[in-house]
Design brief:
The chain is built from 15 helices and 25 strands. The structure holds ligand UAG, adenosine-5'-triphosphate, 2,6-diaminopimelic acid (API) and magnesium ion. Keywords: ATP-binding, Cell cycle, Cell division, Cell shape, Cell wall biogenesis/degradation, Cytoplasm, Ligase, Magnesium, Nucleotide-binding, Peptidoglycan synthesis.
């Protein structure tokens, strides 16, 4: 594609140097530049891409997009723009032939529930006769083809490449998680979402966003802004930020569990077998049976119904589609055992998610609740003491361990978690002396050892919740990513106790 054609996508740019160029590649990492590449110098959180312009040119870049003028050789085109990430998103869309225009695009944002909702909406889109692609935390996938995701929402160049690939494979629709990082960094700029869904907003990513207001402002961009955002909004009102969002999108289809809204439950029965509910919707009352458990999943199902109504599905089609989603990997995922205990792996890695997951467990009225969790390194440290407090408040026995320490000291992360455990009734015990019943916590930094120890404590009627890593099949310690899977570790520990069922893997 001609550089001039790409440049026609962006306003207010200044150009110097040659224009009659045909770049071979779009790229923002100097380490990936090849002969003829068009390089975007992104101002980053860690580094400034402008510093890598000389390296990009040395590696063969024929053109560079910058926010500040820089000296470059005469043979290189220099394009100066106000916002490099936005220019990159627009040019990437053009480069790949505007694939999003061929898809019915649905964007899901909010602190928790996005991944779950993409699975539910995927089923609704199928029911509506679409061939949906899914982009999110677990994987980017379409029709049997799946690649593990490195980000919840890919960088704009990767995103547009994926969309073009999905279109080529025959996708007609897309449901994607839209993270606050993505909205802040313009990764989805230019995508015209037919439907945007807001689930909730609770403290998270406050290492990246200055405060909750900035975090909310990022999320809000999907609904009211210049992106172009979404045509139809679905908003969960049982959340103070959802209420605020509704003020800027009074046309939204509203969802709530406990207040008046277009989608709201009329009658609910919850058990370990799942959720049975009669739910009011604009299409009429839906009789829903879902194998998903927990009140937060009732909320997710209601949000999905809102989206399904926007798709024009009738009540039977809505119930049929959502009833088909029996589980979401790593979200309250059950691990079979012969102890008559419920063993669950869950991705709760925020205070609110952990509280909701533990509430879902408590609603099952178990004998005891045992919780194993840690917090990721190089991520918002503010959630650590909160998760510590939430875990011990709702558990009989908590095992504080490591998540993905990344470049932080795992013991320092654990100390920050424990600093939140202020309730004098909760005692810290050594693993050898822990009382069998009561409010206690132990610290076992090695996650595999923590899981094995918790499994040893399990008795019939107990629930064991291993939280924080869900579907992840790795652990990042330092800069090394090694294989680690909570589900495998649990099965290993259960096997060692002779408590893995005959057919258990
Ligand atoms: C905090 C964050 O979002 N960081 C993202 C951001 O990095 P950054 O702004 O820090 O970039 P940087 O490292 O300072 O580098 C600046 C520029 O210099 C370039 N560079 C750098 C080094 C070099 O030698 N040459 C070079 O050209 C880089 O490619 C980049 O373009 O831009 C990078 C390029 O697009 C991303 O890869 C990077 O994601 C990092 C890896 C990350 O961990 N992001 C997470 C926190 C994230 O995005 N999470 C969200 C939300 C998760 C959720 O809630 O589910 C997600 O959507 O996944
Ligand atoms: N509606 C909800 N409200 C609160 N917590 C929820 C909700 N849905 C799911 N959770 C909890 O949050 C965890 C993560 O859920 P899910 O993966 O669906 O959210 P997400 O928004 O995609 O998260 P991430 O931003 O990490 O990708 C679940 O394992 C569960 O513990
Ligand atoms: N989407 C979240 C995932 C956190 C998962 C947890 N296991 C961790 O590594 O902190 C993030 O990037 O902050
Ligand atoms: Mg997700």
């Amino acid at each position: 594609m001609q550089l001039t054609e790409l440049l026609s996508q962006i306003d207010g740019r200044q150009l110097s140097g040659p224009v009659d160029l045909c770049p071979t590649l779009l790229c923002h990492d100097s380490r990936q530049v090849c002969e003829g590449a068009l390089f975007f110098a992104l101002p980053g959180a860690q580094q400034d891409g402008h510093a890598f312009v000389p390296a990009a040119i040395a590696a063969g870049a024929c053109a560079v997009v910058v926010e500040r003028p820089l000296p470059v050789p005469e043979s290189v085109a220099l394009i100066q723009v106000a916002d490099c990430r936005r220019a990159m998103a627009r040019m990437a869309a053009a480069w790949y032939g505007f694939p999003a225009r061929q898809l019915l695009c649905i964007g899901v944002t909010g602190t928790n529930g996005k991944t779950t909702l993409t699975y539910l909406i995927e089923a609704l889109l199928r029911q509506a006769g679409h061939r949906p692609a899914v982009i999110g935390t677990i994987s980017n996938r379409f029709d049997g083809y799946s690649q593990p995701a490195s980000h919840t929402t890919p960088e704009s160049i990767d995103l547009q490449a994926l969309l073009a690939d999905f279109c080529q494979r025959g996708a007609t629709a897309l449901v994607m998680e839209v993270s606050s990082h993505a909205l802040q960094q313009q990764r989805v700029f230019g995508i015209d979402f037919a439907i945007g869904l807001f689930t909730n907003l609770t403290p998270e990513h406050l290492d990246y966003h200055a405060d909750m207001e900035q975090y909310f402002a990022a999320k809000q961009r999907l609904f009211c802004g210049d992106m172009p955002g979404c045509r139809q909004a679905v908003i969960h009102l049982g959340d103070a930020y959802g209420q605020r969002l509704w003020q800027c999108r009074p046309d939204a289809l509203t969802v709530a569990l406990e207040q008046d809204a277009a989608v709201r439950p009329l009658a609910v029965r919850q058990s370990l077998a799942g959720i049975e509910a009669r739910i009011a919707t604009p299409a009429g009352p839906v009789e829903l049976r879902s194998a998903l458990v927990g009140r937060f999943n009732l909320e997710n199902l209601c949000c999905a119904l809102g989206v399904g109504c926007c798709l024009g599905l009738d009540t039977e089609a809505l119930a049929r589609a959502l009833g088909q989603v029996a589980a979401v990997p790593g979200r309250l995922e059950r691990i079979e055992n012969t102890l008559d205990a419920l063993v669950l792996v869950d991705y709760a890695h925020t205070g609110d998610a952990l509280e909701k997951a533990l509430q879902a467990v408590a609603d099952l009225r178990p004998r005891r609740i045992l919780t194993v969790f840690g917090c990721g390194g190089d991520r918002d440290p503010r959630k650590r003491p909160v998760m510590g407090a939430v875990a011990v408040a709702a558990s009989d026995l908590t095992v504080v361990t490591s998540d993905n320490p990344r470049t932080e000291d795992p013991l320092a992360i654990i100390d920050q978690i424990c600093a939140g455990i202020r309730d004098p009734r909760v005692v810290r015990c050594a693993p050898e002396t822990v009382p069998p019943v009561g409010s206690a916590y132990v610290v076992i930094p090695d996650r595999a050892a923590a899981i094995a120890w918790a499994v040893e404590q399990l008795r019939g009627g107990d629930v064991l919740l291993v939280a924080g890593k869900g579907h992840e099949d790795y652990q990042i310690i330092g800069s090394r990513k090694q294989h680690f899977d909570d589900r495998e570790q649990l099965r290993l520990a259960l096997r060692q106790r002779g408590a893995l069922p005959r057919n258990g893997r």
